[in-house]
Amino acid sequence: xxxxxxxxxxxxxxxxxxxxxxxxxxxxxxxxxxxxxxxxxxxxxxxxxxxxxxxxxxxxxxxxxxxxxxxxxxxxxxxxxxxxxxxxxxxxxxxxxxxxxxxxxxxxxxxxxxxxxxxxxxxxxxxxxxxxxxxxxxxxxxxxxxxxxxxxxxxxxxxxxxxxxxxxxxxxxxxxxxxxxxxxxxxxxxxxxxxxxxxxxxxxxxxxxxxxxxxxxxxxxxxxxxxxxxxxxxxxxxxxxxxxxxxxxxxxxxxxxxxxxxxxxxxxxxxxxxxxxxxxxxxxxxxxxxxxxxxxxxxxxxxxxxxxxxxxxxxxxxxxxxxxxxxxxxxxxxxxxxxxxxxxxxxxxxxxxxxxxxxxxxxxxxxxxxxxxxxxxxxxxxxxxxxxxxxxxxxxxxxxxxxxxxxxxxxxxxxxxxxxxxxxxxxxxxxxxxxxxxxxxxxxxxxxxxx
Length: 451
Ligand code: PMP
Known about the structure:
- The chain has a seven-stranded mixed beta sheet, with helices on both faces.
- It has 451 residues and is of the alpha/beta class.
- The chain starts with 7 loop residues before the first helix and ends with a helix.
- It is globular.
- It contains 14 helices and 16 strands.
- The longest helix is centred in the C-terminal third of the chain and has 24 residues, at 343-366.
- The protein has two domains: 8-77 and 343-450, Aspartate Aminotransferase, domain 1, CATH 3.90.1150.10; 92-340, Type I PLP-dependent aspartate aminotransferase-like (Major domain) (Aspartate Aminotransferase, domain 2).
- It has helices at 8-25, 27-35, 92-102, 113-126, 137-152, 206-213, 239-249, 268-272, 299-306, 327-340, 343-366, 392-397, 401-413, 433-450; strands spanning 59-63, 66-69, 74-77, 130-134, 156-160, 173-175, 181-183, 198-201, 218-223, 253-257, 279-283, 293-297, 372-376, 379-383, 416-417, 424-426.
- Bound molecules: 4'-deoxy-4'-aminopyridoxal-5'-phosphate.
- 4'-deoxy-4'-aminopyridoxal-5'-phosphate binds next to helix 5.
- Pfam families: Aminotran_3 (PF00202).
- Its cofactor is pyridoxal 5'-phosphate.
- InterPro entries: Aminotrans_3, PyrdxlP-dep_Trfase, PyrdxlP-dep_Trfase_major, PyrdxlP-dep_Trfase_small.
- Belongs to the class-III pyridoxal-phosphate-dependent aminotransferase family.
- Keywords: Aminotransferase, Pyridoxal phosphate, Transferase.
């Protein structure tokens, strides 16, 4: 359990009070949810049932870092669509580019020149020369995995315990109590036992990684340069260089999933830490909120793949989708990268995130709570554990769903949104220091009542 100084009965009482307030403040959302009887789980996507207030808040409109719900409540949004809206909601250059495209053909199976511009910008930022597009980061990961299996003739993919790379079957493995890989709890419909397709190592554990790579059957390591989906777990000194050295030594390709670590800066963690992956996968934020995914290949890999006449990369190869690379996604990606998530925008976002993290640390220390705060560029997260967890398993152990839900509802009732599934706050170009201060004032008040 997280914190001795928190009384569980007090937490329950306060949560009941906050849930009642939440229901009072959101009659329209409550009603809409009750009426959505022909949606599986009453939501368009089952994840939307991850709602600390017992039902989801229904969107009316969003702009910049502000959301207005169907009841007219306004929120400062630090969730930002779990990174899908890191460029801010409906950024003007994206809206303009997409609006133009919406009127001029949506699904033609033809390339537009925007794609090449977006690819060139991704190449400049991430240092990998050959890019291809998907509609989600999940698909980018799936397709990268297929390509690397094909190139290596090896069957397995290695991931970090408690990683998240989308609903990629190979990634749903954790280190079990005896140190061996086991299926992640709750996984739905695995095609085969995950140990047949995957190996797993803890983040920050080079010895564990080497032990698994030594089997010689791992096509690729798929990892985030910092874990961001089980709290933020930052790499220790030398870890990422060690991963690169070991993967090269054992003939295993290295995929860095930058979908969330893009928060580190304009070229993601790749540029920020000077990394040399063979493949970068990414999605969400690069489309400014419009669905897109992408993967970038090294020159060596692109060359090898192009020379493989036995691989059908054009038709049945399973590395594409009908609507991938569509004109709207490409217009949105071009506009986001060239006009919204610029170097100047990142500088401001990171400045606000630094203020967010510093303020959190002060408040948490003031209440003598054994919690920790981690930041990766524009992304900040606190965990109910101190010191900060070193790997996914340690971080998972620090979870406290009741406490998390209480804080989320308390904040929502006072007009601030954090990311569901996390205690994560993300900054977009419009986030101000006043918004940060507003979060901190409410967070402080919550702890003052609780501790
Ligand atoms: N990779 C990472 C690191 C992610 O955090 C996520 C989603 N949270 C994904 C991939 C999958 O993204 P999507 O659901 O948009 O496919």
